[in-house]
Amino acid sequence: MRNAVVQLPDLRSANEERQVLRAAIRQLERAEIYFDAVEGMDLNDHEARRAVERLRADTQALRRYLAERRTALRQ
């Protein structure tokens, strides 16, 4: 798996590309935990809350996009 990540994108096989996309998706899922932690800190700051919401929405959109690309590689 590590080899697939550090390999140039043009040199990856379809299977290696799926592995890289899965690793990226997992990292984005982990980011959700950090967003939850920041929200749980109750910073009492409207701008901070909005920023976390934007980051969460962007992260979720990216995760969906990567999942769709991974599914397309299977076909």
Overview of the molecule:
By secondary structure, the chain is mainly alpha-helical. The chain has one domain (2-74). Helices cover 81% and strands 0% of the residues. The chain has helices at residues 2-6, 14-40, 46-74. Helix 2 runs antiparallel to helix 3. The longest helix is centred in the C-terminal third of the chain and has 29 residues, at 46-74. The model has no long low-confidence stretch (mean pLDDT 88).
SS-derived structural category: mainly alpha
Overall geometry comes to elongated
Mean pLDDT: 88
What fraction of residues sit in β-strands? under 5%
Low-confidence stretches: none
Task: Supply the number of helical segments.
Answer: 3
Q: What is this entry, summarized?
A:
With 75 residues, the chain is mainly α.
Summarize the SSE layout with pairings.
Blueprint: H1 2-6, H2 14-40, H3 46-74
Helix pairs in contact: 2-3
Descriptive tags:
mainly alpha, 75 residues
